[in-house]
């Protein structure tokens, strides 16, 4: 039954009201405004019938006090009044009443008005519930669109936007770029179901070693990003990185995967290494690359890499030692594979060499693209790039040079070669690539141009 609270200082009115309403409703009777407020502080009620003219506290004051009670700030109030002039009626509505009933009241009219108001309130509650449900549904959809479907971690778009917002608000911390070493071997040797299970397992590791406020993200494939909020001490960040590495390696060992899968982590700090996501991401990526080139299964700070580079530049280098060091790096008979920063210096040297010697030098640009109706993940593209690098190395001479130009492109410099020879070499590289690469998710093509000493002739 619905509950009606009746507030009136007249005993006869209270008795009559109860007689009219008690058959359909639970009726609570009080004689004073303070008694009504005391009841409403903890009691339930669906409609309040409130007399205007009462001693100590009139109905309008009681009404204002009722609206200060959170539980009853929207409970419908019907004023009871013997005044039927328009000013009293207007004030009733101005004070927030939903209706008023004139005294002496007619039982049928009172029942009708209370019934109509309760119907309206039920409708309002139903609409409010439906609106709240729709808001939750929209929020869930928005939340799901910002999540990685496999691991439940945030995706890159959400992470970039959130990290930038946090930094703009003055938050410090660090961005960890995390990559699983040799993850592709799990997919190749044990199947993609095992690979997906490993990615979920790694996401759980990141959750286990995070605290509220951290942003956990899967970029794609086996690449993850963690923004560690408010932690900038290298010792603390190093502990976190070590925990992540050791925990995943333990889980891989327990899974009996014979793949040497481990974890490499690059770390960039706010604000030293950047004050926006893209710069932090690039810095952490460089630190990660350093780990990959120096044994994997470890972490490295971008600032440490800069310090090491600076220290190396400042030290006088014995030429004999330098010669031995450079010779030690030449391990094979194929083409030189260089990083892009070094490559562009050699490229400019070759341009000057051409100017003096007038030799033919060709530039090849190999590009890996997705096969039709296929979207390759980062691990697949990286595998294809490694196969292409191997094909280039084994197909070319010691005098030829190559470097990665982007995540999907490799540049090759062919010394003493005309365009016909360049096409032959390119086709040989592609043929070797197709033998090495067993997948069918990517295509490879190339462009060729003669390298001239003048930049605008290239």
Task: Give the topology, please.
Elements: E1 3-7, H1 11-21, E2 26-30, H2 33-40, E3 47-51, H3 59-66, E4 77-81, H4 86-94, E5 99-102, H5 107-145, H6 156-168, E6 173-181, H7 183-190, H8 192-208, E7 215-220, E8 223-229, H9 234-254, E9 262-270, H10 277-293, E10 299-301, H11 302-314, H12 319-328, E11 336-338, H13 340-357, E12 361-370, H14 378-395, E13 401-406, E14 409-415, H15 419-436, E15 442-450
Parallel strand pairs: 1-2, 1-3, 3-4, 4-5, 9-10, 11-13
Antiparallel strand pairs: 6-8, 6-9, 7-8, 12-14, 12-15, 13-14
Helix pairs in contact: 2-3, 7-8, 8-9, 14-15
- How many domains is the backbone divided into? 3
**What is the end-to-end distance?**
89 Å
Q: Could you say which overall geometry the principal axes of the C-alpha atoms support?
A: elongated
Cα Rg: 38 Å
Q: Tell me what the CATH architecture of the largest domain is.
A: 2-Layer Sandwich
Query: By helix and strand content, what is the structural category?
Result: alpha/beta
CATH topology of the largest domain, what is it called? Alpha-Beta Plaits
The helix/strand series, from N terminus to C terminus, equals: EHEHEHEHEHHEHHEEHEHEHHEHEHEEHE
How would you describe the overall organization of this protein?
The protein is an alpha/beta fold and 458 residues long. The chain folds into 3 domains: 3-124, Rossmann fold (3-Layer(aba) Sandwich); 156-313, Reverse transcriptase/Diguanylate cyclase domain (Alpha-Beta Plaits); 328-457, Reverse transcriptase/Diguanylate cyclase domain (Alpha-Beta Plaits, 2-Layer Sandwich), CATH 3.30.70.270. Helices cover 50% and strands 20% of the residues. A 5-stranded parallel β-sheet has the order 2-1-3-4-5, with helices on both faces. The termini are far apart. Mean pLDDT is 85; it is low at 316-322 and 324-331.
């Amino acid at each position: 039954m619905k509950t009606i609270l009746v507030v009136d200082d007249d005993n006869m009115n209270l008795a009559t009201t109860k007689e009219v309403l008690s058959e359909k409703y639970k009726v609570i009777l009080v004689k004073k405004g303070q008694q009504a407020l005391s009841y409403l502080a903890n009691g339930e009620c669906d409609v309040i019938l409130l007399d205007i003219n009462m001693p100590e506290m009139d109905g309008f004051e009681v009404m204002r006090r009722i609206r200060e009670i959170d539980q009853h700030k929207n409970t419908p109030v019907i004023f009871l009044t013997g005044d039927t002039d328009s000013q009293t009626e207007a004030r009733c509505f101005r004070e927030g009443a939903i209706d008023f009933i004139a005294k002496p009241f007619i039982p049928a009219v009172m029942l009708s008005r209370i019934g109509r108001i309760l119907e309206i309130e039920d409708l309002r509650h139903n609409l409010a519930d439906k609106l709240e449900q729709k808001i939750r549904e929209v929020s869930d959809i928005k939340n799901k669109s910002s999540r990685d479907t496999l691991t439940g971690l945030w995706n890159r778009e959400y992470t970039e936007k959130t990290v930038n917002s946090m930094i703009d608000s003055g938050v410090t911390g660090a961005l960890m770029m995390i990559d699983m070493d040799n993850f592709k071997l799990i997919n190749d040797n044990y199947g993609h179901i095992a690979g997906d299970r490993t990615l979920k397992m790694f996401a759980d590791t990141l959750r286990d070693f995070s605290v509220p406020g951290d942003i956990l993200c899967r970029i794609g494939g086996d690449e993850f990003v963690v923004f560690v909020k408010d932690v900038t001490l290298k010792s603390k960040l190093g502990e976190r990185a070590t925990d992540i590495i050791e925990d995943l390696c333990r889980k891989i060992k327990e899974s009996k995967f014979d793949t040497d899968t481990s974890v490499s982590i690059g770390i960039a700090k706010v604000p030293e290494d950047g004050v926006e996501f893209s710069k932090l991401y690039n810095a952490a990526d460089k630190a990660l690359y350093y780990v990959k080139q120096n044994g994997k299964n470890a972490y490295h700070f971008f600032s440490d890499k800069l310090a090491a580079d600076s220290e190396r530049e400042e030290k006088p280098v014995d030429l004999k030692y330098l010669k031995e060091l450079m010779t030690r790096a030449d391990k094979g008979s194929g083409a030189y594979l260089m990083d892009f920063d070094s490559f562009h210096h050699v490229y400019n040297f070759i341009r000057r060499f051409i100017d003096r010697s007038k030799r033919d030098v060709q530039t090849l640009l190999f590009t890996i693209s997705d096969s039709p109706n296929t979207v390759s993940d980062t691990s697949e593209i990286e595998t294809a790039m490694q196969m292409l690098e191997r094909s280039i190395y084994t197909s070319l001479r010691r005098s030829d040079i190559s470097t990665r130009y982007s995540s999907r492109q490799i540049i090759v410099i062919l010394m003493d070669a005309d365009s016909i020879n360049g096409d032959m070499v390119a086709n040989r590289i592609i043929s070797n690539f197709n033998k090495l690469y067993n997948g069918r998710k990517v295509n490879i093509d190339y462009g060729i141009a003669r390298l001239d000493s003048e930049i605008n002739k290239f």
